[in-house]
Amino acid sequence: MNHLNDLSEIKLPCGNSLYISNLISASKRKVIDEKNIKAIISIGDEPMEQVNYHGEDWVITVMPISIIDEANSNIQKYFKDTHRFVKEHVDQGNKVLIHCFAGKIRNMRHDTY
Fold first, then answer.
1. Domain boundary assignment for the chain
2. Are 57 and 50 in contact (CB under 8 A)?
3. What would the pLDDT profile of 79-111 be if each residue is shown by its tens digit?
4. pTM
5. Three-class HEC string of the chain
6. At the top level of CATH, which class does the domain 3-108 belong to?
């Protein structure tokens, strides 16, 4: 599997895109640059607090959610906050990436917008 391409795109009704990936793809600067992602929801037991590649700080907003990355984790309690975060950034024309470590939580692919 090419982890650089392990990125799913969801086209939103407004014409913008929402991306879903694992931690490996979310950590690749090339992925962030190519997709012009400006906001990240980082889900896991040690979520990203900021995006920092080789000492360069980017203007990327990160929403960390600390939760165990298992299929039976209760991610629903975060839906209101994640919906607000995604809507705010998408309404500004920004692309948003949602990632978790192993990809178990992201397989739920709930309707965030």
1. 3-108
2. yes
3. 899 999 999 999 998 899 888 776 555 444 444
4. 0.76
5. CCHHHCEEEEECCCCCEEEEEEHHHHCCHHHHHHHCEEEEEEEECCCCCCCEECCEECCCEEEEEECCCCCCCCHHHHHHHHHHHHHHHHHCCCEEEEEECCCCCHHHCCCCC
6. alpha beta
